[in-house]
Design brief:
The protein is mostly helical and about 80 residues long. The protein has one domain. Helix content is about 55%, strand content about 10%. The chain has 5 helices and 2 strands; from the N terminus they run ββααααα. The chain has a two-stranded antiparallel ribbon with strand order 1-2. β1 and β2 form a beta hairpin. The longest helix has 14 residues.
Length: about 80
């Protein structure tokens, strides 16, 4: 059974649809970005995982909203930062 996509509704009412966090992050992704700073890793993951429409909605987020998106995306997968 496939993991459910994560859907985040922005304060402006746009939806960001992302694959399940663990489905978005493959071993190859981790290997390619293992030496990047955490911020670079997260942006690379978003750019790889989101479709054009969701990426446009993501780009409109304020920094605090972006942090909320990342936190809830990980929580949806049952993980927290640093695991």
């Amino acid at each position: 059974m496939a993991n459910e996509n994560f859907v985040y509704t922005t304060p402006k009412g746009d939806e960001i649809v992302a694959p399940h966090f663990e489905d978005a992050m493959s071993a190859g992704f981790v290997r390619k970005h293992r030496n990047d700073k955490v911020e670079e890793q997260m942006f690379a993951l978003v750019e790889e995982a989101l479709n054009e429409e969701s990426l446009e909605a993501f780009d409109k987020l304020r920094p605090s909203e972006m942090e909320d998106f990342y936190t809830k995306w990980q929580e949806h997968a049952g993980i927290t930062a640093g695991e």
